[in-house]
């Protein structure tokens, strides 16, 4: 999976995002609803949900490319925030809709501890060549 050394001083570390499952056609990650992920009114910040969604899409793409010669970078993301949450743990499940040579498109669903849908997102990840 993704090593702790790579995560040090990253947004994933700051937001408490943990990759708990990584397969070719599925990525699962969790994120706590806590101070760093809440908006000023105490609810999960939509931006934190988007960061979680882009993380699972990027990690999923990274898992499928030639990591010695390519890199995965977010190209486009959209999200619909369906339910507010103030505490607990959210879980993102990402599955690829398209696995191309230059882009991958991922469908992401974020749910709460009770498996209620919090956010749905679609993320396009570009695959770029390293120089």
TrEMBL record:
Family of the protein in this entry: Belongs to the thioesterase PaaI family.
Keywords: Hydrolase
Gene Ontology terms, MF aspect: 1,4-dihydroxy-2-naphthoyl-CoA thioesterase activity
NAD among keywords: no
Protein name (Swiss-Prot/TrEMBL): Thioesterase domain-containing protein
CDD domains from the UniProt entry: PaaI_thioesterase (cd03443)
InterPro entries: HotDog_dom_sf (IPR029069), PAAI_dom (IPR003736), Thioestr_dom (IPR006683)
Signal sequence range: none
Annotated Gene Ontology cellular component terms: cytosol
Residue ranges of every copy of the Thioesterase domain listed in the record: 41-119
